[in-house]
Specification:
This protein is an alpha/beta fold. The chain folds into two domains: 6-144 and 172-198, Rossmann fold (3-Layer(aba) Sandwich), CATH 3.40.50.720; 146-170 and 201-262 and 276-289, UDP-galactose 4-epimerase, domain 1 (Alpha-Beta Complex), CATH 3.90.25.10. The chain has 13 helices and eleven strands. It has helices at 15-24, 38-43, 62-66, 82-94, 117-131, 152-158, 175-187, 206-217, 228-237, 242-256, 266-271, 278-284, 286-289, and strands at residues 6-9, 31-35, 50-53, 69-74, 101-105, 136-141, 160-163, 169-170, 195-198, 204-205, 222-225. The strands form three sheets. A seven-stranded parallel sheet has the order 3-2-1-4-5-6-9, sandwiched between helices. Strands 7-11 form a two-stranded parallel sheet. Strand 2, helix 2 (38-43) and strand 3 (50-53) form a beta-alpha-beta unit. Helix 8 crosses helix 12. The radius of gyration is 19 Å and the shape is globular. The mean pLDDT is 96.
Length: 292
């Protein structure tokens, strides 16, 4: 996707989008970031990108954001209307007259037969993108290491991690690595029509995660498996919508049954170096896990 011209980044304030901005900051690329409100636009000041307002569910607001754009990094949030959101961006890109390249952040094992609704959503979006006639590349990452930061409060206060994953193992990846991989696809030739499944260097269990945290924090951290029902109650008590709680529990059940117990070398092939290990990630976020 070299010669990418102006690049529009959606999800620029999130974990992956922010990492992508960091990786493109020193390249001679004109960056534009889609912001959903003035507060989000303000948070992008000084990040090296022009912030433009737009709403995935209001197609007319997307057209100005796509003016003169050669590449779109398309990231849509976990949402009941995610398919509609992504479709609006794809259709706006088709109608822009630019025929921009689309770098789509999908999920691993996106499939209409997936046991998780989120993966089925992404499969539908991938179908729409394939039928659009636009040049595109797919990034399909495994779960983010950053998701384990939600356990930081109990790691700090109780030395425990509570998760409904049983003994499941995940090839989870640092979101910062996804941003680096995305930057490679945008700035280098030869990626159109390809799919990259991004994982960390090893498939790890939450016992492994607890072990890594124990080493980094200098105290014994224990993983406590919990039932899916208890996990849902905890999510709802934190204000997570029921649709999302159910969707995340679908993933937890799948993970516990071996759905994500594998890795690939796609990240290393893209970047020339190994992906971040969980211990390296835990060291970088030690302050957070200590409750700071």
């Amino acid at each position: 996707m070299a010669n990418s011209g102006r690049v529009l980044i959606t999800g620029a304030t999130g974990k992956v989008g922010s990492a992508l901005l960091d990786n493109l900051a020193n390249d001679d690329i004109e960056l534009r970031a889609l912001a959903h409100d003035e507060s989000e636009a303000k948070s992008l000041e000084g990040r090296g990108a022009e912030a433009v307002l737009g709403d995935f569910l209001e197609p007319e607001t997307l057209r100005p954001a796509l003016e003169g754009v050669g590449t779109v990094f398309l990231l849509t949030p976990i949402h009941p209307q995610q398919v509609h959101q992504a479709t609006n961006v794809i259709e706006a890109a088709r109608g822009s007259g630019n025929d921009p390249r689309i770098l789509r952040l999908s999920v691993h094992q996106a499939s209409h037969q997936s046991p998780t609704r989120i993966s089925r959503q992404h499969a539908e979006i991938e179908d729409t993108l394939a039928a659009s006639g636009l040049p595109y590349t797919l990034l399909r990452p495994q779960s983010f290491m950053q998701n384990t930061l939600m356990a930081a409060p109990t790691v700090a206060s109780e030395d425990r991690i509570y998760q409904p994953m049983k003994e499941g193992r995940l090839g989870m990846i640092d979101a910062r690595d996804i941003g680096e991989a995305a930057a490679k696809v945008i700035t280098e030739e030869g990626h159109e029509g390809k799919t990259y499944t991004l994982t960390g260097p090893a498939a790890i269990s939450f016992h492994d995660i607890a072990g890594a945290l124990s080493e980094v924090l200098g105290k014994e951290v224990t993983y406590i498996p919990v039932p899916l029902e208890k996990a849902k109650e905890a999510m709802l008590s934190r204000g997570i919508p029921e649709w999302m709680a159910d969707a995340l529990n679908e993933y937890a059940k799948a993970h516990s049954e071996g759905y994500s117990d594998w890795t690939t070398d796609d990240f290393e092939r893209l970047t020339g170096h190994s992906a971040t290990s969980y211990k390296e990630f835990a060291s970088d976020f030690e302050r957070v896990f200590r409750g700071g």
